[in-house]
């Protein structure tokens, strides 16, 4: 049984908490969609429901999201952490390096690593917000409103893409070692695995050689008799 170090425990906590936070965000989106769509489809929703039912509807999706997100993140961490000695060391060093960063650097790292998700989500939110804004105009037709909302969303998407490129350049200038290491990570992993495999083979060779000699000795003794 392997005893976990404090670094492994902290790394597992950060990974699990991150997965739970993602599940919380997804659950809140589901809750918002339920109340938004339900208010349009069901008369007097949720006003005709008691507070206990409203509370259950509100907290159930985030609770399920936190549970599933944390569980999946924990399982993914275990797979990455304990799939091999090199992967374990690499994953542990990565989490320890992240945990030692100040809060501003953690936020910047999170934005840079998830910039495409943020861009896509912001684009979808901008489309919805733009539609709500232009839908107030009683003169434009529905097709004109869709075109106008898409133009607003595309303008915001260009701004977000430029901001994402700027953040990437800033992070690369501030932490050039991260981007230099990523290019050789696969080769380093392969070479490290080959070195470990070669060491294990060398350790196994003496035992195998002795067993062969024993068999040869027994054969020769039986033939001489």
UniProtKB/TrEMBL annotation:
PROSITE patterns: HIG1. It is found in: Mitochondrion. Residues 88-179 form the HIG1 domain. It holds the Pfam family HIG_1_N. Keywords: Membrane, Transmembrane, Transmembrane helix. GO terms for cellular component: mitochondrion. The chain crosses the membrane at residues 12-35, 151-170. It comes from the Eukaryota. Its main location: mitochondrion. InterPro entries: Hypoxia_induced_domain, Rcf2. GO terms for biological process: mitochondrial respiratory chain complex IV assembly. This is Altered inheritance rate of mitochondria protein 38. The lineage of its organism: Eukaryota, Fungi, Dikarya, Ascomycota, Saccharomycotina.
């Amino acid at each position: 049984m392997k005893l976990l170090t404090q670094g492994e425990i902290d790394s597992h906590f950060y990974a699990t908490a991150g997965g739970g936070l993602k599940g919380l965000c997804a659950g809140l989106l589901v809750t918002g969609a339920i109340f938004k769509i339900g208010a349009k489809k069901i008369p007097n929703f949720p006003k005709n429901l008691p507070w206990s039912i409203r509370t259950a509807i509100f907290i159930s999706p985030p609770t399920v999201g936190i549970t599933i997100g944390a569980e999946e993140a924990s399982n993914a961490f275990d797979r990455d952490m304990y799939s091999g000695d090199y992967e374990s060391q690499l994953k542990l060093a990565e989490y320890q390096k992240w945990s030692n960063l100040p809060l501003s650097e953690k936020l910047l790292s999170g934005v840079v690593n998830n910039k495409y998700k943020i861009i896509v989500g912001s684009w979808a939110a901008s489309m919805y917000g733009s539609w709500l804004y232009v839908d107030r105009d009683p003169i434009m037709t529905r097709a004109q409103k869709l075109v106008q909302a898409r133009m607003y969303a595309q303008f915001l998407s260009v701004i977000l893409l430029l901001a994402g490129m700027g953040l990437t350049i800033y992070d690369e200038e501030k932490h050039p070692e991260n981007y230099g290491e990523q290019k050789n990570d696969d080769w380093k992993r392969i070479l490290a695995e080959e070195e470990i495999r070669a060491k294990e083979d060398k350790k196994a060779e003496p035992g195998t050689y002795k067993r062969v000699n024993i068999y040869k000795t027994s054969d020769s003794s039986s033939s001489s008799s």
